[in-house]
């Protein structure tokens, strides 16, 4: 696989949404925008009762936002638009009236941790270590912070946000509440996700919709909140510290 994509398939009333980018599933703005649209459309599709979010490839679930786009930001408005990419996907997941099951097969970084946190029920392999690396480049996990804090709690989120160099193992993420189950292999994960998602399709759709609204109560301000957070990151990415750091990475 060499071309980035977002695709959706429907099987047994389960909508499978898959994203991919050859650079370790790091996502540029156009792929994030398509992912947000696809999730919104799945929520409106009567042929779908439950959504599964997954990524292509066997290793990294999501390496966060596109580094190539990050290093080309030269003004605050462009920065805000860039960091709004994951905000728009998280808000689409939050507003989707159907349960979204996360399938995390490998390491996930930055915005990818935000995606996993915004699912309603997340399953992973033992290889699915997580890291919030934003502080390393002089910014912070501002956009994904609300979603991560909602799952890990403030203590867990602040721990991995401050310790920006470390990957935290999948079992740690399970103990904190991000992952519901951790499996030994991708094959076991896939079997479990498929069985679980199809089982959920037997339940009352209206009941699941009402439950989702209940679970996400208190997040009604996230459209505004995440936009404000994107503006903070968009400003910080222009700092001398970040520019110098990005030059070294480049």
Question: In terms of topology, how is this protein built?
Answer:
Elements: E1 5-11, E2 14-20, H1 29-44, E3 50-55, H2 67-70, H3 76-95, E4 100-104, E5 108-109, H4 111-118, E6 121-125, E7 130-131, H5 145-162, H6 170-176, E8 181-183, H7 186-200, H8 205-215, H9 222-236, H10 240-249
Parallel strand pairs: 2-3, 3-4, 4-6, 5-7, 6-8
Antiparallel strand pairs: 1-2
Helix pairs in contact: 1-3, 3-4, 3-9, 4-5
Protein described:
- There is one protein chain.
- The protein has a single domain (5-200), classed as 2-enoyl-CoA Hydratase, Chain A, domain 1, CATH 3.90.226.
- Helices cover 50% and strands 15% of the residues.
- It contains 10 helices and 8 strands.
- The strands form 2 sheets. It has a 6-stranded mixed sheet, with helices on both faces. A two-stranded parallel sheet has the order 5-7.
- A hairpin with a 2-residue loop joins strand 1 (5-11) and strand 2 (14-20).
- Helix 1 (29-44) packs parallel to helix 3, helix 3 runs parallel beside helix 4 (111-118) and helix 3 (76-95) runs antiparallel to helix 9 (222-236).
- The protein is globular.
- The two termini are 24 Å apart.
- The model has no long low-confidence stretch (mean pLDDT 96).
């Amino acid at each position: 696989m060499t071309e980035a994509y977002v695709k959706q398939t429907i099987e047994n009333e389960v909508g499978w949404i898959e994203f991919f980018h050859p650079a370790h599933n790091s996502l540029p703005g156009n792929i994030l925008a398509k992912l947000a649209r696809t999730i919104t459309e799945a929520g409106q599709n009567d042929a779908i009762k439950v959504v599964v979010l997954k990524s292509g490839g066997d290793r990294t679930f999501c390496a966060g936002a596109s580094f190539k786009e990050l290093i080309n930001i030269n003004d605050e408005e462009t920065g805000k638009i860039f960091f709004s990419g994951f905000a728009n996907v998280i808000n689409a997941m939050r507003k989707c009236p159907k349960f979204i099951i996360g399938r995390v097969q490998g390491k996930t970084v930055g915005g990818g941790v935000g995606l996993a946190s915004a699912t309603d029920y997340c399953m992973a392999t033992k290889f699915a270590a997580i890291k919030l690396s934003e502080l390393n480049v002089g910014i912070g996990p501002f956009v994904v912070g609300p979603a991560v804090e909602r799952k890990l709690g403030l203590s867990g989120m602040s721990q991995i946000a401050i310790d920006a160099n470390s990957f935290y193992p999948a079992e740690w993420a399970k103990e904190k509440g991000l992952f519901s189950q951790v499996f030994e292999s991708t094959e076991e994960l896939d079997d479990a996700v498929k069985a679980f998602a199809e089982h959920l399709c037997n339940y009352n759709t209206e009941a699941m919709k009402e439950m989702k609204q209940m679970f996400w109560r208190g997040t009604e301000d996230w459209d505004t909140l995440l936009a404000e957070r994107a503006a903070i990151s968009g400003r910080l990415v222009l700092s001398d510290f970040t520019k110098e750091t990005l030059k070294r990475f480049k």
